Description:
The structure holds two protein chains of two kinds. Chain A is mainly beta. Chain A is 0% helix and 53% strand. Chain B is mostly beta strands. Chain B is globular.
Amino acid sequence: AQSVTQLDSQVPVFEEAPVELRCNYSSSVSVYLFWYVQYPNQGLQLLLKYLSGSTLVKGINGFEAEFNKSQTSFHLRKPSVHISDTAEYFCAVSPAGHTGGFKTIFGAGTRLFVKA
Amino acid sequence: GAGVSQSPRYKVTKRGQDVALRCDPISGHVSLYWYRQALGQGPEFLTYFNYEAQQDKSGLPNDRFSAERPEGSISTLTIQRTEQRDSAMYRCASSPRTSKPYEQYFGPGTRLTVT
């Protein structure tokens, strides 16, 4: 079974400052890792994903994340945030490979609040 | 093109009533997922379909919950004899390929309130 822990429930940050949203996971099998963003009254949108290969993954809107297998982490970063980045961010994991099934396990979410 | 749509967007029902939540996936998407999201939590997997076949229903909390996708397109999640603990946002997602389940496109959700 897999689990995901998002270490911060809320992260306030000033506009143009850097931000890191932390995510740790546990799993007994290889996994795929994801970050989703949810804007108010909208569905979840995939920001980026790690499947294999390079541990630094770049996504949309200037976000990137780094997979660290030894620390079982997949932290999300952005060097300079905008007001429009205010949203809820979810880290998620699913078993890698077809035989692992299709369940995606989500963390509880981190609310990013960007202040002017 | 149109994204995933869900209806109704809001549903208030009395305890003990049955409710049916509808998901209309992106045209041509073969996989469809249902999730439940409680306030302050991430989405929780309920069940998923490939075409019309229900592949995994292990996330359904009990036998009051059921889902179907009879023609491999629109899906309905039914909750019988609703209870207050069923109040949550119910989300649907669709995926264009069975081999890439991570390509999930989410709908806006149905917020269910059981009074």
